[in-house]
Write a structure and sequence with these properties.
There is one protein chain. The chain is α+β, with helices and mostly antiparallel strands and 175 residues long. The chain contains eight helices and seven strands; from the N terminus they run αααααβαααββββββ. Helix content is 32%, strand content 22%. Strands 2-1-7-6-5-4-3 form a seven-stranded mixed β-sheet.
């Protein structure tokens, strides 16, 4: 911000200079390109730092959703772990990462995202959430713990600057 203030006040400068640092990254890449080591990380930044979510990160980048999930939100993301993707039939993930399957990949990924924040203690038996793809997931309680669509269990909860991430043990497939 200081660089912006100095440029704004300069009277001797006849033409604008290119932004530098974080501002340049934001200009070139959007919010997902901002490097900020001080603030709480957003959903994408959290996922990128977690090696157990590398398959999800690859899918999000392939579907060009990194900028959307870096925005202010708030979002609730049910993030399948790599082990969840490994449970899919052989070749499924590789197939979804091909350019001609972009719509299918986007449909699946948007089925893992809810606009708004739902904390675990707000999850009640039978709760239905409308996901970004227009379809709903159903939360049930088993032994007092939330289960998504009757099978995906939450294995970790991580708050982000733009929402909350629930690492889950299954990939949610829209019906």
């Amino acid at each position: 911000m200081l660089g912006f203030a100095l440029l704004s006040c300069s009277q001797n400068e006849s033409k604008p200079t290119a932004p530098s640092g974080d501002v340049a990254e934001a200009t070139l890449h959007g919010q997902d390109g901002i490097v900020d080591e001080v603030s709480n990380p957003n959903i994408v930044q959290l996922a990128v730092k977690n090696p157990d979510l590398s398959t999800l990160v690859t899918a999000v980048q392939t579907a060009n959703l990194a900028t959307s999930l870096s925005n202010a939100g708030p979002f609730t993301v049910f993030a399948p772990l790599n082990a969840a993707f490994d449970k899919l039939p052989a070749g499924t993930v590789d197939g979804l990462l091909k350019p001609d399957k972009a719509d299918d990949l986007n449909e699946i990924l948007s089925y893992h995202t809810y606009v708004g924040v739902i904390k675990e203690d707000q999850m009640t038996d039978g709760l239905r959430l409308g996901m970004v793809n227009g379809k709903s997931i159903t939360i049930t309680l088993q032994d007092g713990k939330p289960v998504i669509n009757g099978k995906a269990k939450i294995v970790a909860t991580v708050p982000a600057s733009n929402g909350i991430v629930y690492a889950i043990d299954e990939v949610l497939l829209p019906e």
